[in-house]
Amino acid sequence: MNIRKVTLSAVLLSTLWAPLSSEAQNPSIVVKTAQPVSEIQPTMWGVFFEDINLGADGGLYAELVKNRSFEFFKPLMGWKIQQKKFKEGTVTVQNRQEKNVSNPRFLSVKAENTVRGDLGITNEGFRGMGIKNGLRYDFSVMYRQTSGSVKLHVELINAKGENIGGTTLIPQKNGNTWEKQAVSFTANATESKGKLNIWFEGNGEIDLDIISLFPEDTWKKRPGGMRADMVQMLADMKPGFIRFPGGCIVEGFDLSQRYQWKKTLGALEDRQLIINRWNFEFSHRPAPDYFQSFGLGFFEYFQLAEDIGAEALPILNCGMACQFNSAEIAPLDQLEPYVQDALDLIEFANGDVSTTWGKVRAGMGHPAPFRLKFLGVGNENWGPQYLERVKIFTKAIKAKYPEIKLVNSSGTDPNGERFDYLNNELRSMKADIIDEHYYRQADWFLQNAARYDSYDRNGSKVFAGEYAAQSDKTVSVDNKNNWKCAIAEAAFMTGLERNAQVVNMASYAPLFAHVDGWQWTPDMIWVDNLRIYGTPNYYVQKLYSLNKGTHVLSMTQNNQALTGQDGLFASASLDKNTNEVILKFVNTSKQDISREINLEGVKKTEKTGKVWTMQSNDPEVVNSLNNPVQLSPKESAIALSGKNKFALTVAPGSFTVLRIKTL
């Protein structure tokens, strides 16, 4: 189901919005339009990506074959050998070990007078394969046919085992060198739980590796690319940045499992697979088949950011593994390779083609620099050991690239001794940006709408790097993406926007989740193998991002910011590019709230404005694959008098965005 473009109604809100009458007695909200408080950074609202919940392999990365290079701990995980008459040694997994460290294993097949149906292998995909009727599928394989002649009959099957499309691949070369060959075919049915069969025919021996199947309809139709509907959901938000690749996978359970960006570049066969740390993190949601193939690597992340007009925000390991798991750290006298990785990454992103890493980028098809501006040092790390490493990274990076803004961690929680220590120390170090995380129940977000009102306007800036209201509790399988949580986030975000002089970046987390393969909930966007939907939380984020404005405006009632009085939260901004005042209102109460709005400093407005509203009296309402836009923005028009005052009634349980063009 395609929900990339939401059709909104255009109904005049005559009952909720009306020109101010002379008899109106509602309290007044004053918006000072002629005195902008501060700029709003273009990066204000962004997205955070981590390979959790099958976010990359099985999700954003459109590869349909699981364990395509037989490198999982169990080499045949995801595969099943089909043999009409069993014979030992017909199909074996070979290991080249030190001869090919990045990709040691491959499959060896011996065919003896084999006809189609006698001998084959089946891949189950990532919780099945999503197949679309009439779509072209591109199959490829690395092979080495050492003797004889062996054909490969490639077919897709549905959940009943019926053929829904296929073709035959006839290897073109024999010998001891590896070759790559591709063939395409069209599916003749739609199936959400498809599988791939490869049947062998002939006499001889053939070795197979990097067995791959991609749909034609990837993002921008790039071969071996990303799932288009998932990228489109991000592009529709017009995010200011995309943070990648995580998250906890940056750290790894221990340092051997940390994310190493250089190993995600180049040809697929040179990208060294590692276990995903979410493979075994939660006993209540085990995922023993969760690995990182790195088909979606750092080059692809930079390319994605460029595609959707977002700044890239890569996060690098700072020589510390997950402190909740192993707490392993690299000694300070062995930190140089980690620091060099950071310097090399900046060169990869920004360097001229004559530089070592700029040349690598150009060789991958992007001679122009990516113009990286931000870099994160560590993820959710804490303690004096983290600060020691941050100082070393900062000194080295600023010496060579003083223009790069560095993002530093304030730990896992938004308060407490650990947070206070890091926050104070980083601010004394004049850190560029401090990354704060908060996974808390909905009430916390309502209570903290004024969190940044007292922060130093001239000190380190804040990145609200990971946040999501929890309907139950953190790491609970019962957490829901319901309206109660989404509206609490909307209320909290009025405080982020009001304090844009302090908060320069913010992103909900996690981003994606597969309905059959998640480890963590809540999540912003949910998918199965064919469908996708945005949660109410997604639409809140989207409304903020699309209605950001360029400058914060003062918005007060009785000279106070609106931070929950009578259940009303609000913020205001000015878009100098369009001469529009943008007002955001969140009513968390169960009653209508009526106010007089005074756009102080405005002489005239157009007589019609635009309104987007999300509203429900049911705090438990959620969206789903079968009802993807149950709670989503409804667009309407607002009739104005053309003057600078009007009456406003905000419905209970609602989030409303209003754009008024000034003249």
Automatic annotation (TrEMBL):
Biological process according to GO: L-arabinose metabolic process
Alpha-L-arabinofuranosidase C-terminal domain span: 465-654
Protein name: non-reducing end alpha-L-arabinofuranosidase
GO molecular function: alpha-L-arabinofuranosidase activity
First and last residue of the signal peptide: 1-24
Family: Belongs to the glycosyl hydrolase 51 family.
InterPro entries from the UniProt entry: Alpha-L-AF_C, ASD1_cat, CenC_carb-bd, GH, Glyco_hydro_b, Glycosyl_Hydrolase_51
Pfam families: Alpha-L-AF_C, ASD1_dom, CBM_4_9
Organism: Pseudarcicella hirudinis
Coiled coil: none
Catalytic activities: Hydrolysis of terminal non-reducing alpha-L-arabinofuranoside residues in alpha-L-arabinosides
UniProt KW keywords: Glycoprotein, Hydrolase, Signal
EC number: 3.2.1.55
